[in-house]
Design brief:
The chain is of the alpha+beta class. It is about 65% helix and about 10% strand. The strands form two sheets. A four-stranded antiparallel sheet has the order 2-3-5-6, with no helix packed on it. The chain has a two-stranded parallel sheet with strand order 1-4.
Length: about 450
């Protein structure tokens, strides 16, 4: 027995090397950035929410397209209204008779060589409201286009707010991940220190390094999310996606209202979509009124002046013209049927729009209240997680806790901080959505 023990002793190394955990380390990732281009001189390099919306109103192509529709509608009003205004027609012709006689002994033919000038002034006296109703229809259509333009501005303002707060949120989440990396590095140093002192386990070191690598991975993902959100922000502004604009941190103001019912009343009175559909109903009604006078008489007054050079003479005459289509082959009835159908459709569209507006107000209100409650829960979650991490760190340092508890507590704090940032962002987005749902008024 003694010989066996002696043999085993001789085979063992005199001094065993201490075990060192084999871990791989990763550097802090650098943000991947696009080439930067200069922003226009009129665009501030640093902006808050108001400047962002004003910039979008200047550069967003969708607003330019909508505004052009308003100007086109103004042109159609002028075209239709021109039938109610006096018209002056000026005409000059020159005639040169090349053959002034005919064969067969028929003698000469009257020749009127030279210039002939004509001026005709005409004024519609009445067509029993037909042109007036058509003009009114175009005026209401212009108002509908203006309301559509206001709606487009409101939509752009909401898109800017959404992209603005999403970008701010992603930047805040980067800061959360950077703070987490600092804490993870402290945990790595603590785990290695305890292991070297013989008080910790090798698995504590590997867990700490794994948690640090995971935090670096999440930081890289947060940086990519922020870069993508910046692209969406520039897209909402109508600027080059490579332009770099820094943001000032601002909050979406709360919408003041006395009662919840007031929100629905304000929406029905202020939403530009409803103004658009109401104008379309009025335009359809005027078109129907004009359809009833399709075949009515038209009375106009004309004054004509003529000046002929050869032979020289002048004429001036005034006449009244009455035109009446006694038999229109069913044209008027067809237009009445079509106009009535269009009116019914416009009324149905208005009713559907009112229902959608009320639904949007209700949904926006519920989302806001839910987001506010989530902020309160997230604040409590972060405070509790921070205190848990403090206690867990203290227990681990005095040897009463495990390092796994520290890792779990740090992960819980990271989750709580992320939830708080997301919840606060959701409050701002919900406020913006409620403002859009109630008034639709674009910020100037």
């Amino acid at each position: 027995m003694k010989k066996t023990i002696l043999l085993l002793t001789l085979c063992l190394p005199l001094a065993a090397e201490p075990y060192k955990p084999q871990t791989q380390q990763v550097d802090v990732p650098k943000p991947v950035e696009l080439p930067v281009v200069a922003v226009p001189e009129s665009v501030p390099s640093s902006m808050g929410l108001k400047e962002a919306i004003e910039t979008a109103f200047r550069y967003q192509s969708s607003l330019k397209a909508s505004e052009s529709q308003v100007r086109a509608a103004e042109g159609r009003v002028r075209q239709q209204a021109s039938g109610l205004n006096p018209r002056l027609l000026l005409q000059s012709t020159y005639n040169e008779q090349l053959i002034n006689s005919l064969g067969g002994g028929l003698g000469g033919v009257f020749s009127a060589n030279g210039w002939t000038h004509n001026a005709t002034l005409s004024q519609l006296l009445t067509d029993f409201g037909h042109t007036r109703d058509l003009t009114a229809a175009q005026e209401h259509a212009q108002q509908a286009n203006q309301a559509a333009y206001n709606q487009a501005k409101s939509d752009v303002a909401l898109q800017v707010k959404q992209s603005y707060f999403n970008l701010l949120s992603s930047q805040r989440l980067i800061k959360v991940q950077e703070d987490s990396i600092i804490n993870r590095r402290e945990h790595v140093a603590e785990a290695r220190s305890r292991f070297n002192a013989g008080l910790g386990l090798a698995s504590d070191v590997t867990r700490a390094e794994t948690a640090l690598s995971s935090a670096l991975f999440q930081l890289s993902q947060a940086q990519t999310n922020a870069a993508n959100n910046r692209l969406q922000f520039n897209l909402a502004l109508g600027l080059d996606p490579r332009a770099h604009i820094s943001l000032r941190e601002e909050e979406e103001p709360q919408l003041n209202f006395a009662t919840t019912e007031q929100l629905f009343e304000l929406a029905l009175a202020q939403r530009p979509e409803l103004q658009q559909f109401k104008s379309q109903v009025a335009s359809a009604q005027s078109t129907l009124d004009a359809a009833y006078t399709t075949s009515t008489p038209s009375i106009s007054l004309n004054a004509a002046y003529q000046n002929r050079q050869n032979p020289s003479f002048q004429t001036l005459g005034i006449n009244m013209a009455i035109s009446f289509q006694a038999l229109d082959g069913g044209l008027q009835d067809g237009r009445i049927t079509e106009a009535q159908a269009n009116l019914d459709r416009a009324k149905a569209d208005l009713e559907g729009a009112q229902q959608r507006v009320l639904s949007q107000v209700g949904q926006a209100y519920l989302n806001l209240r839910n987001a506010e409650q989530q902020v309160q829960s997230a604040n409590a979650e972060e405070a509790n997680a921070r205190e848990t991490l403090r206690l867990t760190n203290g227990r681990y340092k005095v040897g009463l806790g495990t390092f796994l508890e520290v890792i779990d507590a740090q992960s819980a704090l990271l989750t709580a901080q992320t939830n708080r940032v997301n919840a606060l962002t959701q409050v701002y987005l919900s406020r913006a959505a409620l403002t859009r749902a109630v008034s639709g008024a674009p910020a100037e």
